[in-house]
Design a protein that fits this description.
Layout (H helix, E strand, L loop, with lengths): L6 E6 L7 H14 L3 E5 L2 H6 L3 E4 L26 H14 L3 E6 L1 H15 L6 E6 L15 H22 L2 E6 L6 H10 L3 E3 L7 H14 L5 E6 L5 H12 L4 E4 L11 H19 L5 E6 L2 E6 H6 L7 H10 L8
Parallel strand pairs: 1-2, 1-4, 4-5, 5-10, 6-8, 6-9, 7-8
Antiparallel strand pairs: 2-3, 10-11
Helix pairs in contact: 1-9, 3-4, 5-6, 6-11
The structure holds 6-O-phosphono-beta-D-fructofuranose.
C-alpha cells in the first residue's frame, strides 16, 4: 500500500448489469498498459473476505466486451457490512499488496468501498478506492447514467413488443412489471418507447382512477382494443393492479413480471462504450492517487468525484418525460401507440 501504484484489484458487486464485463476489460487493459498489475476479486466483497482472486492480464479479458453478466461473478455481502468482515478483507489486500481497488456496482458497493478505505486508514495505511456506477436501475445520484440501463431498457422493449402482438390479437390488456428497485427510470423510458397506455412509477403518487382507468377509457374511445400498462416494481404489484383493472373495468388483464431477464444479454453499444470510458478513467484516477473517487457521467463527460460527496448527491427523474408519454399515447385523437 505504498506511494506509486503498482497493483490494483477489480471487482463487481451487487446486482449484475450488462456492460460490467466491458468495464472490467477496460480497467485491466488500461492498468496493464500503464505497468500496473491487476487482480480480479471474484464474487465482489465476499471474495475479498475469503481471498478468492485471479490474476488478470490483457488476454484474460479478451472476448468479454460483448458478454452480459460478469466474468468475476457478483454477490451481495452482509459480512462486509461488519467491521470484522472488512478486517478479513484488509488481510487479503495486504496479502495481495493492493494499492487500490476499482469497485463496479451500485450505491451499496460504493459505501462498502468507502468503509474499507477508512478502516485501512485507521492503521495509517492507504488503500484508494474508485467506484464505477453499474446498475440497470440508473439510480446513482451522482451519475446521469449507469452502465446496463440502456441494455435493460432495450430488453424490456423487445419483450413488451412481443407481448403486444398477442395482446393485440386477443384484444387484451397487459400489465407488465419492470425492475428498477425504488426508481422509475426503467419503467418510464420503456413506457415511452413502447407507447404504453399507462406507466406507474414510484416518483409519482399513483392515482389509479386518473392514471389507469381514465387512460384505458381514452384509449378505448380512440379505437384501441388492447392496452399496455407498465408498472415499476417500486410503484406497486402488477397482480394487484390487474385485479383492480378487472374489478373496475370488466377487463381481464394478463400479467407479466419481466424479472431478471432484464439483467441479462449482450450489452448495447452505449453500455459498452460508456463502460470502456469509465474503466479507463478509473485507472487514471488511481494512478494519480487522488484518493477515494466515483467515476460518473455528467452531461456528455466522464468525471470523477469525491466518493463521500458523490454518495450524498441525489438526482430526480425528469418528470417532463411523463408529460411526453401522456401527450403521445393518451390523446383522444390517436389510437393507442
Ligand atoms: O438493482 C438491480 C436489481 O435488478 C433491481 O432492479 C431489483 O430490484 C433487484 O436488483 C433484484 O435483486 P436480486 O437479484 O437480488 O433479486
Amino acid at each position: 500500500m505504498g506511494d506509486k501504484i503498482k497493483r490494483i484489484g477489480v471487482l463487481t458487486s451487487g446486482g449484475d448489469a450488462p456492460g460490467m464485463n466491458a468495464a472490467v476489460r477496460a480497467v485491466v487493459r488500461s492498468a496493464v498498459g500503464m505497468g500496473i498489475e491487476c487482480i480480479g476479486i471474484r464474487r465482489g466483497w465476499t471474495g475479498l473476505i475469503s481471498s478468492d482472486f485471479v490474476k488478470l492480464d490483457g488476454s484474460s479479458v479478451s472476448h468479454i466486451i460483448n458478454k452480459g453478466g460478469t466474468m468475476l461473478y457478483t454477490a451481495r455481502s452482509l459480512d462486509f457490512m461488519e467491521r470484522a468482515g472488512r478486517e478479513k478483507a484488509i488481510g487479503t489486500c495486504k496479502l495481495l499488496g493492493l494499492d487500490g481497488i476499482v469497485a463496479i456496482g451500485g450505491d451499496g458497493t460504493f459505501r462498502g468501498a468507502l468503509a474499507l478505505s477508512r478502516q485501512v486508514a485507521e492503521d495509517g495505511q492507504k488503500l484508494d478506492v474508485v467506484g464505477i456506477p453499474a446498475t440497470i436501475d440508473n439510480d446513482i445520484g451522482c451519475s446521469h447514467y449507469t452502465i446496463g440501463f440502456d441494455t435493460a431498457c432495450n430488453t424490456a422493449v423487445q419483450c413488451i413488443d412481443k407481448l403486444r402482438d398477442t395482446m393485440q390479437s386477443h384484444e387484451r390488456c397487459s400489465v407488465v412489471e419492470v425492475m428498477g428497485r425504488h426508481a422509475g427510470y426503467l419503467a418510464l423510458y420503456v413506457g415511452i418507447a413502447v407507447g404504453a397506455t399507462a406507466v406507474l412509477i414510484p416518483e409519482r403518487p399513483v392515482d389509479f382512477e386518473n392514471d389507469v382507468v381514465e387512460n384505458i377509457r381514452r384509449a378505448r374511445l380512440a379505437g384501441s382494443t388492447h392496452y399496455m400498462v407498465v408498472v415499476a416494481e417500486g410503484a406497486g404489484n402488477a397482480y394487484e393492479i390487474a385485479d383492480q383493472i378487472k374489478e373496475k373495468m370488466s377487463i381481464d388483464p394478463r400479467v407479466t413480471v419481466l424479472g431478471h431477464i432484464q439483467r441479462g444479454g449482450s450489452p448495447t453499444a452505449r453500455d459498452r462504450e460508456l463502460a470502456s470510458r469509465m474503466g479507463y478513467q478509473a485507472v487514471q484516477v488511481l494512478a494519480q492517487r487522488k484518493g477515494n473517487r466515483i467515476v460518473a457521467k455528467q452531461e456528455g463527460s466522464i468525471v470523477d468525484l469525491d466518493m463521500e460527496e458523490a454518495l450524498a448527491m441525489t438526482k430526480s427523474l425528469e418528470m417532463d418525460r411523463y408529460d411526453v408519454l401522456e401527450a403521445l399515447t393518451n390523446n383522444d385523437g390517436f389510437r393507442n401507440r
